């Protein structure tokens, strides 16, 4: 294994994860499956779009063969012989995968690696930046950044130390106090702290942000991104362990990357490797630690360290937060984000079609600002199936489809083609008349019976008036804990017991994945738009239906020998 080329090691790593020879968390498995599909499956859209440039792979191999470890268990030894499969996997993905229709353009522009401490994180960043110094076009500017000057200096010094102990490589560099210059191409690497102004006027090709999980805002990331606007092969790399903060931009990146891997968002440019425990894993179970410690958990020395830290965390609760965040990558805080429904549980409830004929339904809608997304849902209780059944549709201004597709990374044109979403209204404004006509046509199109219409009063007065004039019974659903807690509870329990079914709509699925719960002092919960990680309009409309569904269940009866049975 030691003498195998880097690509082979990366490939075998992905195989071992997918074949369950190496235990891994679900999103590492998905990342590896994606990679194998891209390189092996000729029918895959990713195979048709991208390829591995083996000339670049050879260059990576040759460069790494010239480096040595500066510290740690293998200090002074050649890096090439000791790099783990997951480290090769990350480097190969970021530097050796290119567009088939533009062979000089790399696939990935943004990368996020979430990994526990003591897993050679700093070495990985150092190697990432050294490759950039050698690969980028002449006179490129590169940035190694962190949240504080001290952190940035530590990272910069680690890169310098790698060069200093690698004389075969260091002869090609000029190492100065505040920068590293590559003599082969005049590329320059600068250390920069989180003050965004430090990148003003720079044209950055590649940048990294170390310990991004400790950031309280995304200023340094946004500054780097802005400085790369005219660069063809731009690449921003964030890496971190977990931190006990309720909100930080690293968590947002991870959530985004998970949606990409779940195929709820299409973004071929974003790369995520998320080494963490899965939801139901016990933090005291030593067998699952490899999920967040792909390096430490594979050596007896590393496991002895982790077991010692865990013992202290169990016996001294004050140590538990540090161990679980730093060594197991669990986000712990006093006000944690709470996912409403796990996407894997929801997908079990997906159905392709449903016959709405003669079904009594609650129709509910959520009308946002005139320029934002809007949604309509219907919900029924099917006594034969013993399930709640739902179908939802989204509406966006026609003139904002392309802008929203770019900003939200949601393929709205594809969703419109599938009938999951509708474009209506020009000049950036929703056509409420279109939505009102859609609601009024539901009965004739689907054959159902609209027994009640539920709505959030926000922006709804005109629409409600028109629906009532058409003979529909409309009921306001107050947007507070007392009303929405029972609705959220009913929907969640129905999903978890598989007594819920929804007609396939990927926009609805994405909305549920975005949704986050909040809890009040009385321990009542509800889904909140402000706390959520993206649009949730289709879900919000359906929850209005769940708030009213029990009021019409008694009308869903069948006749047996002249006796009505509920």
Structure description:
- The chain has 566 residues and is an alpha/beta fold.
- The protein folds into two domains: 269 residues, P-loop containing nucleotide triphosphate hydrolases (Rossmann fold), CATH 3.40.50; 213 residues, Nucleotidyltransferase, domain 5 (2-Layer Sandwich), CATH 3.30.420.240.
- The chain has 21 helices and 23 strands.
- The strands form five sheets. An eight-stranded mixed beta sheet has the order 5-6-7-4-8-9-3-10, with helices on both faces. Strands 12, 13, 14, 15, 16, 17, 18 and 19 form an eight-stranded mixed beta sheet that branches. A three-stranded antiparallel beta sheet has the order 11-20-21.
- Helix 9 links the parallel strand 8 and strand 9.
- It is elongated and about 85 Å long.
- The chain starts with 5 loop residues before the first helix and ends with a strand.
- The C terminus is likely disordered.
């Amino acid at each position: 294994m030691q003498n195998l080329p880097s690509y082979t090691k990366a490939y075998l790593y992905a195989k071992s994860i997918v074949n369950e020879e190496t235990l891994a968390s679900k999103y590492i498995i998905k990342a590896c499956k994606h990679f194998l599909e891209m390189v092996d499956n000729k029918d895959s859209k990713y195979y048709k779009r991208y390829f591995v440039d083996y000339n670049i792979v050879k260059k990576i191999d040759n460069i790494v063969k010239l480096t040595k470890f500066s510290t740690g268990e293998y200090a002074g030894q050649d890096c090439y012989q000791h790099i783990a499969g997951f480290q090769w996997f990350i480097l190969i993905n970021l530097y050796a995968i290119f567009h088939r229709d533009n062979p000089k353009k790399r696939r990935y522009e943004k990368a996020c690696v979430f990994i526990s401490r003591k897993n050679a994180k700093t070495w990985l960043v150092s190697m990432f930046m050294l490759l950039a110094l050698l690969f980028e076009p002449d006179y490129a500017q590169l940035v190694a950044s962190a949240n504080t000057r001290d952190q940035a200096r530590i990272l910069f010094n680690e890169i310098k130390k790698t060069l200093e102990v690698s004389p075969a490589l260091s002869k090609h560099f000029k190492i100065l106090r505040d920068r590293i210059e590559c003599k082969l191409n005049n590329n320059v690497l600068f250390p920069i702290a989180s003050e965004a102004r430090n990148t003003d006027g720079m044209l950055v090709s590649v940048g990294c942000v170390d310990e991004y999980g400790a950031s309280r805002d995304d200023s340094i990331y946004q500054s780097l991104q802005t400085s790369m606007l005219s660069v063809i092969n731009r690449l921003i790399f964030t890496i971190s362990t977990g931190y006990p903060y309720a909100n930080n931009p690293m968590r947002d990146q991870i959530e985004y990357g998970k949606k990409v891997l779940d195929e709820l968002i299409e973004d071929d440019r974003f790369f995520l490797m998320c080494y963490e425990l899965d939801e139901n894993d016990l933090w005291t179970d030593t067998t699952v630690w490899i999920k967040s410690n792909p390096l430490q958990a594979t050596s007896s020395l590393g496991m002895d360290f982790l077991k010692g830290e865990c013992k202290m965390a169990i016996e001294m609760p004050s140590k538990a937060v540090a161990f679980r965040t730093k060594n197991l990558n669990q986000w712990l805080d006093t006000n944690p984000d709470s996912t409403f429904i796990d996407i894997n549980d929801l997908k079990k409830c997906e159905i392709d079609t449903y016959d709405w004929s003669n079904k009594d339904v609650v129709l509910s809608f959520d009308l946002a600002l005139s320029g934002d997304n809007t949604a309509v849902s219907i919900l029924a209780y099917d006594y034969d199936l013993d399930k709640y059944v739902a179908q939802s549709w989204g509406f966006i201004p026609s003139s904002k489809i392309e802008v929203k597709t770019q900003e939200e990374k949601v393929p709205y044109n594809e969703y419109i083609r599938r009938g999951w979403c509708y474009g209506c209204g020009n000049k950036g404004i929703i056509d409420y008349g279109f939505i009102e006509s859609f609601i009024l046509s539901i009965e004739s199109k689907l054959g159902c019976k609209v027994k009640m219409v539920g709505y959030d009063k926000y922006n709804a007065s005109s629409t409600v008036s028109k629906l009532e004039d058409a003979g529909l019974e409309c009921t306001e659903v107050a947007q507070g804990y007392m009303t929405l807690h029972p609705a959220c509870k009913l929907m969640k329990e129905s999903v978890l017991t598989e007594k819920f079914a929804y007609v396939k709509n990927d926009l609805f699925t994405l909305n549920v994945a975005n949704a986050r719960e909040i809890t009040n002092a009385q321990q009542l919960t509800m889904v909140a738009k402000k706390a959520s990680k993206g649009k949730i309009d289709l879900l919000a409309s359906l929850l209005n239906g769940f708030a009213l569904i029990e009021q019409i269940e008694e009308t869903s009866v069948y006749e047996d020998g002249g006796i009505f049975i509920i």
